[in-house]
Amino acid sequence: MKLSDFDYDLPKERIAQYPASRCDESRMMLLERKSGGVRETRFSNFPRYLQIGDLLVVNETKVIPARIFGRKATGGRVEIFLTHRLGRRRWSAMLRPARRLRSGGTILVGDEDFPVKILDRTGHGEWTVQLPDAFTEDVFLRTFGHVPLPPYIKREDGSADTLRYQTIFARREGSVAAPTAGLHFTDDVLRRIRRRGVTVVPLALHVGPGTFRPLPCETVEENTLEPEYLLIKREYWEEIRAAKRSGRRIVAVGTTTTRALESLVAGPLEEQEERIIDGEPYIGGWAPVFIYPGFRFRIVDAMLTNLHLPRSSLLLLVSAFAGCENVLASYRWAVRRRFRFYSYGDCMFIR
Length: 351
Hints:
This protein is an alpha+beta fold.
């Protein structure tokens, strides 16, 4: 299977640079998996397409202000993009530009030149860095960190992004990109969903930088995805499994939630562990599943998702779920109807 089979033409002006004025005002495409039929509505109508007894699974990961700007001692600007925490004040990070940076060097941040130490270089073009001792990690990130908007949003982050590039479910810090299908939800939409007799269950899959990286191999099967950390209360996982066994529909909010659920059912996770948080048992570990056409879905029955980049792992996942021809035809339809694409764009419900 070739990546070129998952390409489509998208005018640049269809890439959303800002969110809709209201979260639930986004347009929503309905895609029928069996027939490939499509039609348009508004996301505010999403609750009416759910059924009594459905179990809606959401991603409660929280985006951290992972982008920090500093400078070398010689004055050159350096961007530090934190990807995941390794330990106390130690992080894996991408550094741009990386030319002439060396292990043992220092990047200076802020007017008072707080030092971020470069410890060593790791794989995937990343480095290990140590944050300054003058602050707690939380205070340092809140003071100097920026919202890590994806590279196809061609502007600097603003104060509105602090709120809008975060879902209403967000409570567990760890992502460097938003689980964007969740950005459309409002408290009102959530209340109406629950009033329909739908159970809402959270998990956390911390989205890593791999969500932005292009797949390097033209042959789809030769690619791999970086594992992402998953955390779910054991009680919730048992509830999801019981709902599936009883024939209730499992509706995943986003590709991240879908990957998490299918990794759990494939189990065990990489480095799976039992964790106790606030006295409750949780399952933790790294979700390794790479989903592309031919994958057999074992737990997800319906999916809400945004509209994804050509040739991306996310488009492969959606194509595996709804069929490549159906998805690409629906994307072409969305382009003609001037839908807004990617993180701040419109969405589709595949049922």
